[in-house]
Amino acid sequence: MNGASLLTARRRKTILWIVLSMPLLWLAALVIQELRQPNSGLGPEPTEALLHYLGEWSLILLLLAFSVSPLRRRLNWAWLGQHRRLIGLFAFAYVCLHVLVYAGLYAQFQLTELLDDFVHRPYITAGIGAFIALSLMALTSTRGWRRRLKENWRRVHRLIYVASFLALVHLLWLRKDPGLAEAIYLLIFFVLIIERMFSHWQRRRSI
Known about the structure:
Elements: H1 3-36, H2 46-66, H3 68-75, H4 78-81, H5 84-106, H6 111-120, H7 122-139, H8 143-149, H9 151-157, H10 159-174, H11 180-206
Helix pairs in contact: 1-2, 2-5, 2-10, 2-11, 5-7, 6-7, 7-10, 10-11
């Protein structure tokens, strides 16, 4: 990679950092406003608003990470593949914050409460399943783990399918009356699945 290409890659990475951080910056502004004047930033149910905000953005960034390969193939954006890990780790960071808000502000870090929700609330079960899948991917996302796992690394990172599906199930079971946003998320997920199936069919046909 020459100097100009390296500079361009750094600019793209910086832009991605800024764009992916913007929802958190906006949330920080809302929290500050809420602390100064209750109910003015996060509304009458601040904990629920905080949880839903982080959950929504977790799903958006997860779907963005899931779309890296299709976008790279269909738009010839080879550079996007270089930032797959960054996007994935941002998605994981949002998910971690979402889980922390739930465990801390809702369950008060009570293990019995967490276990009861996990067993008796299916949407929580699906959400925790997605979190576990993402955790495995995040922990093995380094070059060192890629060298250790070799071909198994790709198998581990196919958990993105599981994580995306369970995250959608979590949202749909949580919101018993899905609206336009949920329909859009589902449509994006199925389009990405169809693109992957079509790409796999094209590769097999060319052999």
